[in-house]
Specification:
Layout: H1 4-16, H2 20-33, H3 38-53, H4 58-70, H5 76-90, H6 94-105, H7 112-127, H8 131-151, H9 158-173, H10 177-188, H11 192-195, H12 197-205
Length: 207
């Protein structure tokens, strides 16, 4: 049996090589050899992503996300539950999708996962022409984004830039174009080195 540090190092090497099948094999070993670890929850989630994006197997992806969500890890289980809700929606299980997304979106402490879950809830309600629900979820997302930005206000990070951009989009959709422009300028001031080329271009292009 391989030790976890050795398997982590192997994952790092394979990720640098973009060896997706190799990473899958190592994560399956982590599940088999170290099933009760934090690494195993991460492995379950990322195997689910592999099934979804590389294997194009929605059923297998859903099963892995379900298992990871049940582990109740504060980070990886929340990520898995968000992905699970999205999978349910694409399986035509809209109410179950919203149930899982609400469990992440209405967290006591806002996080990147709660923001993502709320964003997908907003999209689902928009697709169903449920405008009151769209507005209600958007207001919650705006509130949480403001809280996250406040926590990061003394930093210069790509996370801060992403939250500023997301808040700009949300308030723009809510009709406040003036604040949206101000938020984009604030994000732009972080610069491309902090934001990364793709996010910086999105910020510069605006809405």
């Amino acid at each position: 049996m391989s030790e976890l540090p050795e398997l982590r190092d192997e994952l790092t090497r394979l990720e640098a090589e973009k060896s997706y099948d190799g990473m899958l094999a190592v994560r399956e070993r982590i599940l088999a050899e170290h099933p009760d670890t934090e690494d195993a929850v991460e492995a379950l989630y990322k195997i689910g992503l592999h099934c979804l994006f590389h294997g194009r197997d929605l059923t297998q992806a859903t099963q892995h996300f379900e298992q990871a969500a049940k582990k109740k890890h504060p980070y990886w289980s929340a990520a898995a539950r968000t992905s699970l809700g999205i999978c349910y929606y694409h399986q035509g299980r809209g109410q179950k999708a919203l149930f899982e997304l609400r469990r992440v979106g209405y967290a006591e402490v806002p996080s990147e996962h709660s923001i993502t879950a709320l964003s997908f809830m907003e999209t689902i309600h928009a697709n169903e022409a449920e405008e009151e629900e769209v507005d209600r979820v958007r207001l919650e997302r705006i509130k949480q984004l403001r809280q996250l930005i406040e926590k990061l206000s003394d930093t210069s990070s790509s996370d801060l830039g992403q939250y500023l951009f997301s808040l700009a989009a949300a308030v723009h959709d809510d009709g406040d174009r003036g604040e949206a422009r101000a938020l984009l300028e604030q994000a732009k001031s972080l610069g491309p080195d902090v934001l990364g080329a793709e996010l910086y271009q999105a910020v510069v292009s605006g809405f």
